[in-house]
What we know:
Layout: E1 3-10, H1 17-25, H2 33-38, E2 45-50, E3 54-60, H3 68-75, E4 80-86, H4 93-104, E5 109-115, H5 122-136, E6 146-148, H6 157-170, E7 181-190, E8 194-200, E9 205-207, E10 211-215, E11 238-247, E12 250-252, E13 254-256, E14 260-266, E15 278-281, E16 288-297, E17 305-306, E18 310-315, E19 318-326, E20 332-333, E21 338-349, E22 356-361, E23 367-375, H7 386-398, H8 401-411, H9 419-426, H10 430-442, E24 446-449, E25 452-455, H11 456-476, E26 483-484, H12 485-492, H13 498-511, E27 514-517, E28 520-523, H14 532-548, H15 555-562, H16 569-581, E29 585-589, E30 592-595, H17 596-612, E31 617-619, H18 620-627, H19 631-643, E32 647-650, E33 653-656
Parallel strand pairs: 1-3, 1-4, 4-5, 5-6
Antiparallel strand pairs: 2-3, 7-8, 7-15, 8-14, 9-13, 10-11, 10-15, 11-12, 11-14, 16-21, 16-23, 17-20, 18-19, 18-22, 19-21, 22-23, 24-25, 26-28, 27-28, 29-30, 31-33, 32-33
Helix pairs in contact: 7-8, 8-10, 11-13, 14-15, 14-16, 18-19
Bound molecules: guanosine-5'-diphosphate (GDP) and magnesium ion (MG).
Amino acid sequence: MTKSIIVGTAGHIDHGKTALVRALTGIDADRLPEEKRRGITIDIGFADLDLGDVRVGFVDVPGHERFVKNMLAGAHGIDLVALVIAADESVMPQTREHFDICRLLNVQKGLVVITKKDLVEDDLLQLVRAEAEELVADSFLDGAPIIAVSSRTGESLEELKQVLRKIGLEVGPRSPEFVTRLPIDRSFTMRGFGAVVTGTLIAGEIAEGDELELLPARGRMRTHSIAPSLTGGFPAGAMVRVRGVQVHGSPVKRALAGQRTAINLGGVEAAAIERGMVLAEAGRLRPVQIVDARVQLLADSPRAVRSRQRLRVHLGAAEVLARVRVLEETGEIKPGAHGFVQLRFESPIVGVLGDRFILRSYSPQQTIGGGTILDAFAAKPRARDLAAIRARLKILLEGDRASQLKQFVESADRHGLRRADLAARTGWREEVIGRASQEALESGTIVDAEGVLLSRAIFDELKNKVLEEVAKHHAREPLSRGLAKETLRERRFAKAPPEIFRGVLTHLENEGTIVSEKDVVRAREHTRELSDADARLRERIEKIYQHAALSAPTLAEAFDQAGVPGSAQQHGRKVLQLLIDGGALVRVSGEMFFHRGALDDLIKKLREYASRNSDRTIDVAKFKDLAGVTRKYAIPLLEHLDRTRVTRREGDRRIIL
Ligand SMILES: Nc1nc2c(ncn2[C@@H]2O[C@H](COP(=O)(O)OP(=O)(O)O)[C@@H](O)[C@H]2O)c(=O)[nH]1
Ligand SMILES: [Mg+2]
């Protein structure tokens, strides 16, 4: 199988990057008319080279300092860097800046190509080689091949290809643990096809027919229906359909992680798509605006980073302005130092835990450092919480997946996190989230409440709150069956997802500390112990209704007969409720109650009546006769029978079921 790798050029302007790519591939990566006219690279360009078992996609970048932002749009997803140094000029400012950028983006491998070998004598070439070695010492390129070539004469190009092939074979596969993501570096309309976007597929796969999400949505795009509260108020992305996929200029069924990819999209106009947007597996990633990160400043950064500074952040193919809040006590991060910061972006970005970015000063535009996103759903920090925030960010930076997941769950506090929320923070695929949460659950530090993960400490706190509320309720209302679940939810779980409420209750029930009965919960040991007086009152009320049968008294009459004084009506109602809860009395409407026995007799009579009448129907007059009640009772009784499906109304008659 052929392996696909992406090689980015890097280096100072006019050092022969584009010429090198052309000499290797035969393709002129300077595709813009302005580039051809001026003879310089302005934007990233692409070419590809077949080396048998390795297929190289080149991203050729501009070297001019004014176009570093364009260089960054191409540099983010590369496997290898070809750091180009012209033999006649040696190391120059953008050689250093591009190299710094590669280090900050955590590029892992590469090589140094000394170009224009034909222009210099051997001793000068040795000097340039020495300078190159010095530049890359103690970096990822320390010990990497340094090859001198001439794109003009073709000298050593074959050797370079073989070295590229060899390093290419050493490049590890892209991690299969992340959801599909393609930062878009170009979009255009192709006549007859519609919108086409290109980019480096940094994770996952994209196949013809896939439904993907384009984020962040802008303008009038048809957006995905996710609750805005989940995205910090932004619409999530726009849904788009993959009409076709190309890799290295040929149509393929599916593109794989690590390939330069062109995608023909349906459902969106090219004009609505901007460089920096992201094409991703639908429903997994979300646009965000406040991000906690760790940053590293270059030793020769012209400035420190301080709170309130406005910086340019290059993330994926995007460049977005952000305001910094330094989370270190000193309030600043000095050149050469690292530290934690919060970035407040001026427009939404798409980023997850571990994403690398580059920081450039607002004006003049200079690369000052780079960083790693840790929490893409950060909250505004309070000064007194800074130490705790840093401790937390340190775990996100250094911890394993289970501890990172636990950190996210803990900071979600009482709201807990669903798996989709974790995907939006990490970009992890479902299985990875499953494994990490399994591990965290087994360690007992988090709890799964019906699919919502929350910290064990919060869960226990909620459990205690429930027990407390239930106990208080029993103390206040000893005659009540229990506390209405709805009241409990409103009181303690108003802002939490319903799963957490249900999860806490289920947990307490399984433990056997509470019992849930229909719409109420009670403590397991709660019994409604009646005083002798109340037990006798209950008996009296029941008798009154039993004797009255279908000529039921009003509540006032019943209380009167039972000897409940006006001042004890509240108490009388509670005792009455016991009869209702126990099933002896039935509320037929409002304050009209009947004894269960009387209703059962009535139903029996109705059924006998039905068996004597072939049409099984009865009208109100007949019903009054049969039941021996007045109209005042007949209508509520019939409506009750309709509701309980003993009868069914049909016009002014009832069918006895
Ligand atoms: N003599 C010589 N000239 C070269 C070589 N490679 C590039 N050049 C010239 O150097 C100039 C800049 O090359 P270009 O590829 O555009 O540089 P880039 O800005 O790094 O992309 C062009 O005029 C090239 O023809 C080389 O190996 N030998
Ligand atoms: Mg060029």
